């Protein structure tokens, strides 16, 4: 791999990564990655409707490999990444992609962003091979599966919290902006719009089931088919009975951008919250000014602190000013966790080397990794990242559920919560200021 990073420049430009980088260097005991390469793989949606994210998942893994190799790789062995396209991300396609990574390249680990589908189908392929799997499917189903047979799924780790945290986190966030008087609800109505599928429905159901505890009544609960660019029928129902808050748990950036463009033709006096999608730059590119004022959240993304901003600089220097570092950090984060654990365990294991990979998994479980997205620490038994706040009250022990607002679509969104990571104050959206 043609690395654009050398050891000296990496440390010079990344002093705030000294903890994780220093741990890797200490375990390696060498400044050079000159041994036999370690193949690692990624199965990502490089084409089709989620390609905006898939390309960044690829970039994140490439950058992590370059940086890790500049520090000696894993015990002197450089990382060599391979990629397979999951396209529309159905179970069959996902399985085929992961199986090719194992059969063709003998990868020691698969380090993904997210893929749709059940998730369990891929995890069975991983378990049969006895290798390590780091992913960001953000699925409660991951923990259920691992808990059902921890010996079989020993190597599967979800490097962010599950999707159910989105629902409880949103209701608490809305209460916080009411408590500080930056938002006063005009009524108690909440409209929920979701897409078919377990992920979006789990979030929507969590909001719906907890809404009454915060004084909300659900005035609309509508499932839409996706991908979609025509929001007219849904918006007609919203305009007929305007709610105080519109919650959209569908997450494809292009679809959400079209929602805002069409919403702004005749906006209702409602806060608009969208899940994850607006974190992808293509949302702002398509929506333009219609994006201003949108609230969204993500349980995995680069923080706007020293580490996160330095990562953003390196990422855009490597892949271009328009590169989406918030998506790229998902696989970047997973690669660093795996590499440090593999070095501490005495090396990684090829397919079939369960014994060595169980040692790697043990080190992953014991790590508290402070990366560009906050602290990653895994919940025993289910092997997903602890959430902050909610899962833990200490920000140094969990991954923050970040709430952001697009206040100027020409720049990056503003991080407004949780404490102590927030950098800006919530503002009423422009369509509610008249």
TrEMBL record:
PANTHER family: LEUCINE-SPECIFIC-BINDING PROTEIN (PTHR30483), PERIPLASMIC BINDING PROTEIN OF ABC TRANSPORTER FOR NATURAL AMINO ACIDS (PTHR30483:SF6). The keyword tRNA processing does not apply. The keyword Mitochondrion does not apply. Keywords: Amino-acid transport, Signal, Transport. Belongs to the leucine-binding protein family. It holds the Pfam family Peripla_BP_6. SUPFAM superfamilies: Periplasmic binding protein-like I. This is Leucine-binding protein domain-containing protein. One of its GO terms (biological process) is amino acid transport. Residues 37-378 form the Leucine-binding protein domain. Transmembrane segments: none annotated. It comes from Pelagibacterium lentulum. PROSITE patterns: TAT (PS51318).
């Amino acid at each position: 791999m043609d690395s654009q990073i050398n050891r000296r420049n990496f440390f010079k430009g990344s002093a705030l990564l000294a903890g994780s980088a220093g741990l890797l260097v200490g375990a390696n005991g060498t400044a050079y990655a000159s041994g036999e390469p370690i193949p690692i793989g990624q199965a990502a949606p490089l084409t089709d409707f989620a390609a905006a994210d898939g390309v960044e998942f690829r970039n994140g893994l490439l950058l992590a490999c370059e940086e890790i190799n500049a520090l000696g790789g894993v015990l002197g062995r450089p990382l060599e990444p391979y990629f397979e396209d999951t396209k529309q991300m159905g179970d069959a396609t996902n399985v085929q992609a992961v199986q090719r990574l194992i059969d063709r390249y003998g990868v020691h680990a698969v380090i993904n962003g997210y893929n749709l589908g059940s998730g369990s189908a891929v995890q069975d392929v991983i378990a049969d091979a006895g290798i390590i799997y780091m992913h960001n499917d953000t699925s409660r189903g991951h923990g259920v599966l691992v808990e059902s047979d921890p010996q079989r799924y020993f190597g599967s780790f979800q490097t962010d919290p599950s999707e159910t945290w989105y629902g409880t986190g949103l209701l608490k966030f809305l209460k916080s902006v009411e408590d500080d008087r930056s938002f006063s609800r005009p009524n108690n109505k909440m409209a929920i719009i979701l897409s078919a599928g377990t992920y979006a429905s789990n979030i929507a159901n969590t909001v719906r089931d907890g809404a009454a505890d915060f004084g909300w009544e659900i005035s609309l609960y509508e499932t839409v088919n996706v991908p979609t660019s025509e929001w007219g029928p849904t918006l007609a129902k919203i305009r007929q009975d305007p709610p105080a808050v519109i919650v959209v748990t569908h997450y494809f950036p292009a679809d959400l951008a079209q929602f805002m463009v069409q919403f702004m033709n005749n906006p209702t006096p409602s806060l608009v919250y969208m899940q994850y999608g607006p974190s992808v730059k293509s949302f702002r590119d398509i929506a333009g000014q219609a994006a201003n004022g949108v609230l969204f959240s993500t349980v995995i993304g680069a923080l706007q602190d020293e580490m996160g901003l330095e990562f953003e600089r390196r990422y855009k220097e490597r892949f271009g000013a328009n590169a989406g570092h918030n998506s790229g950090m998902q696989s970047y984060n997973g690669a660093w966790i795996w590499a440090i654990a593999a070095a501490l365990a005495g090396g990684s294991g090829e397919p079939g080397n369960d014994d060595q990979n169980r040692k790697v998994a043990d080190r992953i479980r014991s790590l508290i990794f402070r990366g560009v997205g906050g602290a990653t620490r895994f919940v025993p038994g289910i092997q997903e990242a602890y959430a902050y706040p909610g899962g833990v009250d200490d920000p140094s022990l969990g991954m923050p559920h970040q709430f952001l607002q697009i206040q100027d679509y020409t720049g990056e969104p503003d991080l407004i919560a949780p404490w102590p990571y927030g950098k800006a104050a919530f503002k009423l959206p422009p369509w509610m200021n008249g």
